[in-house]
Amino acid sequence: MKLLFSALARGGPGPLTTLIFHRVTPEPDVLFPGEVDAASFDRICGWLARWFHVLPLDTAVQQLRAGTLPARAACVTFDDGYADNHDQALPILQKHGLTATFFIATGYLGGGRMFNDSVVETVRHAAGSTLDLRALGVDGLGTLYIGNHDARRAAIGAILQAIKYRPVAAREGLTQKLQSLAGVATLPDDLMMQPEQVRALHRAGMQVGAHTVSHPILARLDDDAARSELTASRSRLQDLLGAPVSLFAYPNGKPHEDYSAATVRLARQAGFDAAVSTAWGAADRDTDCFQLPRFTPWDRTCGRFGLRLARNLVSRAAAAKV
C-alpha cells in the first residue's frame, strides 16, 4: 500500500491527504456501529503511521505553499471538541507517534452539548417504539417508528436533517421541545471536553484550532455575526492556551451549502493561516489553503481503507470549493 501511495504522489510536491474524525468512543455504539471506536482508531493510526508522513497541519500548510511537501504527506484532524478526543484518541495517537489538530467549538466546553448530540441522546433514551413529533411543528416530522436500532438511527437522521440549517437559537429550542415530547428527563453533560483537557492536548504537542463558538451554518449568517463566531472562538482558545491559534475549520464544512466565498474572506481577514472544509479530495500546490479538503474512508479493513484513500488522492483535482 505504501508503494501505491508513493506512485500516486509522483509528478510534483504533495499531494496532502487530510483525514477528519469527530469521536473515538471506548466501545462500538449500538446506534452507530460504523462510527470510529478506540480499537478501530488504533488500527487506522497504525496504517497511517506505516503508509504516510503524518505532519502537524500548520507544517503541512507551510510546505504545501512552498512546494516542499514530502510524498505521502497526511494530517489527522478532529472536529467539535468531544471529551473522548482527549480520553481515547490522544493516547492512541501518542502510541503511534502521530500528531493531530483538534478544532474546538468553544461554546460547548465544560458541560455544553451540541444540538445534534441532544437529538441523538434524546432518541437513544426515548421509551417505546414510536415518537410522536407532530407538536414539534416541523414539516416532515410526524410520528416516527423507533422500535429497533435501525429505526432509531433513521429517526435521528430525519430529525437532524429537518432542523440542521435553522438558526442556532431555533435549533436549541426545537431540541428542548423534542426532549420534552420524548419524555427524556436528563441528557448527558459530559460529552464535550473540559478546558483543562484542551490544555492537556496542547501540552502533549497536539494542535488546537478554532471551530466557531456555537457551530452555526456560517453561510447563513451576516458578516458581523460570522466574524464574531470566528474571532470569539479563537480568542477563547488563545486565552485558554496562552498560545496563538492559526487554524480554522468551517462547521459542517460543505462548500456553498455551509460556508461561502464571504466566509472564506472573513477567515482570511480574521488572521487565520489556513482553514479546512469537508469537501472530499486531497490538496496540492494549487489548492486554496483556506479550503483544504478532508476525507476519511469508512471501511474497516486495511485493504479497503487504503484503496479508498488512494481513490481520494486521484480525485484531488476535483476537490470542491466556493
Topology:
Elements: H1 2-8, E1 16-21, H2 38-51, E2 53-54, H3 57-66, E3 73-80, H4 83-96, E4 100-104, H5 115-125, E5 130-132, E6 143-145, H6 149-163, H7 168-182, H8 195-203, E7 207-210, H9 223-241, E8 247-249, H10 261-269, E9 274-276, H11 302-314
Parallel strand pairs: 1-3, 2-3, 3-4, 4-7, 8-9
Antiparallel strand pairs: 5-6
Helix pairs in contact: 2-4, 5-6, 5-7, 9-10
Descriptive overview:
- α2 runs parallel beside α4 (83-96), α5 (115-125) runs antiparallel to α6 (149-163) and α9 packs across α10.
- By secondary structure, this protein is of the alpha/beta class.
- The protein folds into two domains: 2-110 and 190-318, TIM Barrel (Alpha-Beta Barrel), CATH 3.20.20.370; 115-182, no CATH class.
- The chain starts with a helix and ends in an 8-residue tail after the last helix.
- The protein has eleven helices and nine strands.
Strand content: 5-15%
Tell me about the largest β-sheet.
Answer: 5 strands, parallel
Indicate the CATH topology of the largest domain.
Answer: TIM Barrel
What is the top-level CATH class of the largest domain?
Alpha Beta
Q: What is the radius of gyration?
A: 20 Å
Strand pairing plus helix content: what structural class? Answer: alpha/beta
Tally of separate helices: 11
Secondary-structure element pattern, one letter each: HEHEHEHEHEEHHHEHEHEH
- What form results from the Cα inertia axes? globular
Annotation, overall tally of beta strands: 9
Mean pLDDT: 95
Count of discrete structural domains: 2
Share of residues in helices: 40-55%
Residue stretches low in confidence (pLDDT < 50, at least 5 long) are: none
CATH superfamily of the largest domain: Glycoside hydrolase/deacetylase
N/C terminus separation: 33 Å
